[in-house]
Amino acid sequence: MSGRLSVVGLGPGNSYQLTPEADSTVSAADALFGYGPYLDRVPERVGQRRHASDNRQELQRAERALIAAAAGETVAIVSGGDPGVFGMAAAVCEALARGPKEWRSVQVAFVPGISAMLAVAARVGAPLGHDFCAISLSDNLKPWEVVEQRLDAAAAAGFVIALYNPISRARPWQLERAFARLGAILPAATPVVFGRAVGRPDERITIAELSAARNNSADMATCIIVGSAETRLIERPGERPIVYTPRGTARLTA
Amino acid sequence: MSGRLSVVGLGPGNSYQLTPEADSTVSAADALFGYGPYLDRVPERVGQRRHASDNRQELQRAERALIAAAAGETVAIVSGGDPGVFGMAAAVCEALARGPKEWRSVQVAFVPGISAMLAVAARVGAPLGHDFCAISLSDNLKPWEVVEQRLDAAAAAGFVIALYNPISRARPWQLERAFARLGAILPAATPVVFGRAVGRPDERITIAELSAARNNSADMATCIIVGSAETRLIERPGERPIVYTPRGTARLTA
């Protein structure tokens, strides 16, 4: 008797950017699993159980949800943004791959959401308007050298770069190192957008030039977009400038 | 007298993945502008005008919408997926940047949507589960050499690659060239996901190995995800395999 496991993206954290699919999947679940602050975004429903766990316990959370689904329950794991972009989707797949064979009979579904970089980009214009990449700055699961190599490759090839997990208490130094590395390749005036808690009451957007970009505008709830050499600003009277990357390029980089 | 222009992402093209924000912004507009097939997704409303235009006329469409908004109207431009990812957002910024100064007093808003790569990824598992990039294969607005350079850089640095605009009648040859280039860097068995019209009635998902990936599974409505060397499959009884990229890597590439 196998149940169903859905891995659901809640988007930025407001109801107007939550898809009807995510909303109804979460409502229909017998049990919800997730990092506490994400679970807190979901309205309570009588009869629905909630299993909050800590930020770093993705694999354990995935395993517990799979055990419940394999026992016949309808289960949802909630993730901020999109679960497939540095969210819970890959952790669920890893747990499934190394778990018992019977888990593979669980119906597994992934429900996309508005990822942080899309929400941040929309607030300031179109910084992702051309080729871009998304990099997690966390070195919990990959060597820092790989992060540096990817930053270099992306900047040199002309990609706009969205940085996820830019900083945490345990990793205070990576972000300035990343800015320094990118600054060795990109123009000093390259626009950098800090989008903190976008779409929530404590939203804060900051725009800086790469040469002046520092740690202090970022925390764990921040997604950062570093422009390419093509990214530019449109100044507006009495308003924040618009940041965009034109759709085309005439230039060969490198 | 300045009006308002919203650039709205309709997501993959079904109502369950359309955000409430996108839905209400489109409903509230006096006039809608867009590529015909995207406008067709929006329910008709009495008193709301519609201006359909051809696929390739992004800049002209943006200018017409800005003229209407500058005259005081509440206007929405609709885009498939997310407008900031190879959609209409950058075209609107370009039009704004080169247009008359008074356009800068128009209230401009960007409404994010579920981009094609997120929808395709969710259908098959978590192929974007680690660092990834998005590249448009169109050489309408950039030299083909830049596309090749970015494909090489992304594959060598270990990024998963989402390919937008993979093929069209006017550009039949790029996709096989791209596969050949990536095949020179990545393992022959690297999973490639073709997601056509995901979330719509004519959805078709195909999974191939990179060495066997060909043009014939793709058209203009297709978004393709090419894995990294880490991307792998989970086979399931009687079902399509799950495709995922683990969250971590121990390996240094290149």
Please explain how this structure is put together.
The structure is a homodimer of 254-residue chains. Chain A is α/β, with parallel strands linked by helices and 254 residues long. Chain A has two domains: 4-114, Cobalt-precorrin-4 Transmethylase, domain 1; 117-244, Tetrapyrrole methylase, C-terminal domain (Methyltransferase, Cobalt-precorrin-4 Transmethylase, Domain 2). Helices cover 27% and strands 26% of the residues of chain A. The first copy, chain A, has seven helices and 13 strands. Chain A has helices at residues 20-28, 36-39, 58-70, 89-98, 116-124, 144-156, 174-183, and strands spanning 4-9, 31-35, 49-53, 74-79, 107-111, 125-126, 132-136, 160-164, 191-196, 204-209, 222-226, 232-236, 239-244. In chain A, the strands form three sheets. Chain A has a five-stranded parallel beta sheet with strand order 3-2-4-1-5, sandwiched between helices. In chain A, strands 7-8-11-9-10 form a five-stranded mixed beta sheet, with helices on both faces. Chain A has a three-stranded mixed beta sheet with strand order 6-13-12. In chain A, strand 9 (191-196) and strand 10 form a beta hairpin. The longest helix of chain A has 13 residues, at 58-70. At the A-B interface, helix 1, helix 4, strand 5, helix 5 and strand 6 of A face helix 1, helix 4, strand 5, helix 5 and strand 6 of B. Strand 7 (132-136) of chain A pairs antiparallel with strand 7 (132-136) of chain B.
